Amino acid sequence: MKTRIFGTIIILTSLFWTVSCVQTLEKSEFKEFELTDSEGNTRKGGVYLPQGMDSKSTYPVIFMEDGLVFKECEFKHMIDSLIDYGIINPVIVACSFENKMTIPGYTISYRNAEFVETIAKTDSKLANLFDVHYNYFKDKFIPYINKNYPVSQEKTDRIFFGTSNSADFGITLGMRDGDMFSELWCYSPVYSDVSEYERLDAPVDFRICWGAKEEVGMFDYFPSLLKDIRKRGGNVESWVFNGGHDREWWKYWFSEELKRKFPYKAN
Fold it and tell me: What pLDDT was estimated at residue 8?
């Protein structure tokens, strides 16, 4: 009898330590997953989980459209370094992977149609592609992250991040559902047009930048876009960097925004 009790104690103790260990990540991770949209299409994504993440805590989250950029430009290494050196507090980054394949019968990719409302309005098929993706991102992707990972539900801790066409998607998202995020970081949008939108019910904070050497001229398109957003009640912080339509510049400004928004604070 004593032997059985003693063995039970060992098993329970072992289980306790096993559970305790899995609650905190020893190393950062990037986990990939698949979801299905309303039309049965498989959508891929990934989520960055910082080292030291405790499943009993909650963390700021950045919802990143064009999520393959995270993988291809080594964002993980950059964020790991910012956290390791005590520059920012840990954050979770949820990445929705873009579809770069060309749409049959068109000269543009699925990514273009799914991200850019202005393009979608030119054709009913493209409009459907945009709507399906928009609803997927809002009603499937974000809820999946909310349910499966310890992300904060406080608006101040929730960011949208997009570049190029996905920046256009972010601007549309802000005009339609801006109350989901504290800020929308939209770098180098290309085709946005918000002139048909009504005034926002509440202010939405956009942070928009672009390069002085971009093909889309900053002396025409960008000032007009910022003016239109502000006319509809959007708060816009904007700046120009000395570069072109370039991922490395976007990565740099992403890191700078992380430092501004989530500076390290000791618990």
Answer: 41
